Amino acid sequence: MPAKLIDGKQIAADKRQQIKVKVQELAEKGLVPGLAVILVGENPASQSYVKGKIRDCKEVGIHSELIRLPETVTEEELLAEVVRLNRAPSIHGILVQLPLPKQISEDKVIETIAPEKDVDGFHPVNLGKMMIGQDCFEPCTPAGIIEMLHACKIRIAGKHVIIVGRSHIVGKPASQLFLNHDATVTICHSRTTPLAEYTKQADILVVAVGHAGLIGAEDIKPGAIVVDVGMNRNADGKLVGDVEFPEVSQKASFITPVPGGVGPMTRVMLLENTVKAALASDG
Ligand code: GUN
């Protein structure tokens, strides 16, 4: 495999270790960072993500609270819970696991979270600050991608970064973060044709669509850096990304695996944002 593997699992483990030391120092001064996670309903993927987030908190010494609400919860009840957590002094970060049932407006829920506790970085205040380059909570997946490229000493400034996917959680904020790091950024999406004409121009290709096999070796430039954000189950039930890893890894210079690439980085950035929120609350 000519491409070097960007080992998100290892980079995240190293980062968790650093966060653990920081949390211990803060705890000795009487400041224990606290994260509240709200999980609505029984979606298996959401349950699994939330379980991982709570486990990570335990590992580094962050206080965590899991609030489980039934699928039938009303928007009013959920908003009341968010308001209670906004006021709770032991809670510095609030995460409402998405997606939410259809009777609830996700936008309204996100806008109700206090921006200073919005460790997901989804609140319009944080997104607006990111847009004008101010200090803010950066969304965890894009921030994790930047962090893993830094860990591999990959320069971003001046590179042509092509992002495939324009979601609010990954594609759009990733484009802004790469721009803030002086990249030239192109966003592609479902209406971009022909997609390969764009992806072949990428020095750094970020693929966040949720479509197994979307990017093959013929779709990239030799030596490209490929970041695969996709999480799909193939016919055998195996977790795969959006990129045909076996062939693309023969042509790229760096590549992230799935699993063990972007996923662990997303999780560790949530811990980092929670520590940041706790520090900011300390005045
Ligand atoms: N659902 C899928 N990814 C995420 C995430 O990063 N944060 C939240 N809150 N929900 C999600």
Automatic annotation (TrEMBL):
NADP(+) binds at G165, R166, S167. One of its GO terms (molecular function) is methylenetetrahydrofolate dehydrogenase (NADP+) activity. Gene3D superfamilies: Leucine Dehydrogenase, chain A, domain 1, NAD(P)-binding Rossmann-like Domain. Its EC number is 1.5.1.5, 3.5.4.9. The keyword Oxidoreductase applies. Pathway: One-carbon metabolism; tetrahydrofolate interconversion. It comes from the Bacteria. Keywords: Amino-acid biosynthesis, Histidine biosynthesis, Hydrolase, Methionine biosynthesis, Multifunctional enzyme, NADP, One-carbon metabolism, Oxidoreductase, Purine biosynthesis. It holds the Pfam family THF_DHG_CYH. Homodimer. This is Bifunctional protein FolD. It comes from Sporolactobacillus spathodeae.
